Amino acid sequence: MRQHSFVLIGGDMRQAYLGKLLAERGEQVTAVGLERHGGGEWFPLAADVRTACAEADVVVLPLPILQGRGLLNAPLANAPFRITDVLDAIPAGMPVFGGAVPQMVREMAKRRELRVRDYLAREELAVFNAIPTAEGAIQIAMEQLPVTIHDLTVLVIGNGRIGSALAQRLKGLGADVTVSARRQEDFARIASMGYRWADTRALDDIIGQFVLIINTVPAPVLTRLVLSQCRSDVLVIDLASGEGGIAPDAKSLRKSIHALSLPGRVAPVTAAAGICDTITHMLEEEQLL
User: Fold this and answer.
1) What is the reported pTM?
2) Which of 14, 20, 62, 10 is nearest to 41 (CA)?
């Protein structure tokens, strides 16, 4: 395996710990936009994106790439970065990695003869990320609710990677778990795991029995009609990306928390390790390692 020169641009503590892991593996690492990460001894910081990219052979952008329209996600930077300026600074043909890459960024990169590889689209990382996401959601529930998870009536909306990880952990804590889905095969799978099942398209019939609702579906499944049937003391934790799963006209009906990027908030070291392994595998598959 040959040594690479990585430049990390923007990101949260996941990106900082990623740089630390890469440096510990013997890679050369430089970062831009991580001035406030508090680990300056891990790798050098560069002030200029263009200079840093010119001296690197792999660029790693954050997860998610964007924070607001047109701005790179860079909460630890001293100043904002426009995504157009970042892409303009990367030499054509250089391997670029990022997480949750929107189509707009793909098109902008293509015009600059760049291809941004989405490491979050990899199944290995999606499965890995489900664990800290589930643990983070349960942590929020334990902090916000005045009761224990044990014996709690919980609805998990969605039976994907995160929904499955949540149901397993909630049941392990003694919760009365119902998981909703849309397909008959999912209903069978949910029942086989020992949970109650429900149809996501008919939640208004049963929603009033739950004290905790955790949504993983990135569509407005929690409509005004559905939420109006909830208990007044319900806690809704929305894990879905983008606008989430609560309809815009229903957000004020019940207490809700839109909890995004939980792996970076509750387990940045673990999350960084998953990103590091995934990028390494992608480089190997493209014979760049």
Assistant:
1) 0.87
2) 20
pLDDT in tens, 110-160: 999 999 999 999 999 999 999 999 999 999 999 999 999 999 999 999 999
**Residues counted in the chain:** 289
Residues 234-262 have pLDDT tens digits of 999 999 988 899 999 998 899 999 998 89
Strand order in the sheet with 235-238: 196-199, 176-181, 153-157, 212-215, 235-238, 255-258
* Partners of 59 in the β-ladder: 7, 96
CB proximity list for 99: less than 8 A, separation 6 or greater: 61, 62, 63, 64, 65, 118, 119, 120, 275
| pLDDT higher than 80, residue 1 | no
Task: Provide the greatest CA pair distance for the chain.
Answer: 60
CA dist 210 and 116 (Å) reads 42
The alpha carbon of residue 206 and the mean position of all alpha carbons in its chain are separated, in whole angstroms, by: 29
pLDDT band at 5 (very low <50, low <70, confident <90, very high): very high
What Å distances lie between residue 196 and 152, 157, 289, CA to CA? 13, 12, 47
Q: How many C-beta atoms surround the C-beta of residue 151 within 10 A?
A: 11
Distance CA 287, CA 289 (A): 5
Q: With CA atoms as reference, report the closest residue to 59 among 122, 120, 130, 6.
A: 6
Q: Three-state DSSP class for 240?
A: coil
Is the Cβ–Cβ distance between 258 and 244 less than 8 Å?
yes
CA atoms within 13 A on the CB side of 65: 27
Any idea which residue has 């809704």 for tokens? Answer: 236
Cα within 13 Å of Cα(98), Cβ side: 25
Contact (CB, 8 A) for 185 and 129:
no
Task: Give the H/E segment covering residue 18.
Answer: helix 13-24
Q: Which helix (H) or strand (E) holds 266?
A: helix 262-266
